[in-house]
Amino acid sequence: MAERGCPLEAVPLPAEVRESLAELELELSEGDITQKGYEKKRGKLLARYVPRTQGVDPSLQAETRIPGPSQATAPVPEQQKTRPSHARDERFRSDVHTEAVQAALAKYKERKMPMPSKRRSVLTHTAVEAYTPPADLHSAPPDVTTGLAQHQQTYCERPQLASVRGAPRGGSGSVLETAGGVPVSSRVSSKIQQLLNTLKKPKRPPLKEFFVDDLEEVLEVQQPDPDQPKPEGGQTAVLKGELLAVGSTWPPSLLATLQQWGTTQPKAPCLTALDTTGKAVYTLTYGKLWSRSLKLAYTLLNKLTSKNEPLLKPGDRVALVFPNSDPVMFTVAFYGCLLAELVPVPIEVPLTRKDAGSQQVGFLLGSCGVALALTTDACQKGLPKAQTGEVAAFKGWPPLTWLVIDGKHLTKPPKDWHPSAQDAGAGTAYIEYKTSKEGSTVGVAVSHASLLAQCQALTQACGYSEAETLTNVLDFKRDAGLWHGVLTSVMNRMHVVSIPYALMKANPLSWIQKVCAYKARAALVKSRDMHWSLLAQRGQRDVSLSSLRLLVVADGANPWSISSCDAFLNVFQARGLRPEVICPCASSPEALTVAIRRPPDLGGPPPRRAVLSMSCLSHGVIRLDAEEKLSVLTVQDVGQVMPGANVCVVKVEGTPYLCKTDEVGEICVNSSATATAYYGLLGITKNIFETVPVTAGGAPVCDRPFTRTGLLGFIGPDNLVFVVGKLDGLMVVGVRRHNADDIVATALAVEPMKFVYRGR
What we know:
With 760 residues, this protein is α/β, with parallel strands linked by helices. Helices cover 26% and strands 18% of the residues. It is built from 18 helices and 30 strands.
């Protein structure tokens, strides 16, 4: 049986029938009708003429194609065989059009071509089944329309002919010529003529010209400017921090300290929570913190079962879901997990079931194997609920069991029950989440030994002492807010007054008022809090900051913090604030606290600032400039490195060679007070937590690995650390580097209604 579409014996048909067939083929190719509809209409058109065909299988009569009279026996040259279907030129080929156009050309030779009436598809071309083109046609450049893909149905192979182009009109008939220059005199229908005119001058280049495989042909590789600034200083050395004081006064672990204060100083205030009006709603004592933590630890280990088996075992991870307005219950949950030898994973309260950020947190919980979430009754009531009344399953989260830890839900342990004694070891104490610039969330694991060393280093660097009052404006679940306001404070039996974020929005001056009310000796803020309080301080004449000996600026490493610090000092110096009290610090989730400025009474050098050329900074070179220029960046020091730590600055890319003294690089820390790993991610853990800096000769600078901080900076005079940006905010344009933080610094540096000057 002959294949569908193979050339058949010519059938004499009236002109109107052939024109209808051509239009029908055109409609099929453009998708105006289905294949079934096309066959039905074609069968009706040919019904009265099909019996005239001889030797044709009846099953093919409804689909018989009507070739031109010269198509039956013409030989097909080897060079004219169709290209493979996967070739780029064959992507949109349509055999329906080729037959329709050729049939019209062969039949209507004497008819004058009408003007086009309607614009049709631009992706149509023609081909002839049995036409033998001249030899020079093979070398002609391919027409854009030869890049059309073959029809989905199976047809016989036929030679391809370039598109037909209309010749200039004139005389009683119209002369057509193919792309190869073969003249054809013919008359065609309006639709066919429209097709020919459309293909006459293609508006688009061939499809393949839109794609270039070699990127070097598209992007010009910018060569370094020979006149660009280059570092000229000598090689830096490893900077060693002061020795960590070792004596009998340090406790063996943080939990041992909690037990000591909970039993010997049970009525000492530990934490005061405020409501959104600034009123103290509850003060947690050290005795209550110890007893509630014990009760929670006993409940977690003995009262939670699954299939008659304990739900939790030592080392399991537990999610802590508490709002920023409830530091008391969070602190109880955190220490309760530590006493039960469980690993707390503090996260944010999910707002909706399909929150995008919540999905990343769900990935973190899944990778940590979290199966239990601790929360309060009030917080649980605000979570999205399923139809059953249970907490809804959040998108991307693993299945969780929710436990409300309010007092009535916990079980009091027997008098002879005691938690397992735990020294500060290498086991994971807690996991803090970190969100990268790509939006992914990872868990940074901190060991018990690192937690204890961090508390000891902060105690020594900040000079904390027993019974001091600390006003904390930061998030107590992570970063400096956790390290100072929940961990180090308990080690030193301090009283923390926690300022909720909602109160700061309603009354930006609330933290200063609480410093006055509680005679706080220390305060923990960010530069934004100082900026907000400046806007709200007018009319407040009864505030005094004379009690402060330490004002820790947690984001002091950001370049815009210096303007907030200067403005805050100018206003509040007349209200008792001493200049040496302001202590910026630098930190990262991986290295914890990297450096902090010491007050003079703790032996710290005087503060310094550097006015740097931004043009040179974009090349990674440190050059001092004049402060009155507009294209400079003024940064302040973030103090000295932490006690017991070693710090060096290495090149940002490639092998971690030590930088030169006038070169910007990434700050790396070797200390017992850093985090230990990205939980469950061994690959990137090795790159970040096991870096081995080397000298220019390739020799390791230390026999112990360093931790990359993600902070870009340099070591200045008096061994002070300066930070000019973060690796996550680095933008590379050509061969120059810019930092996203500089954009914020620029916006804060210029006055409203003025221009951002060139060079910033």
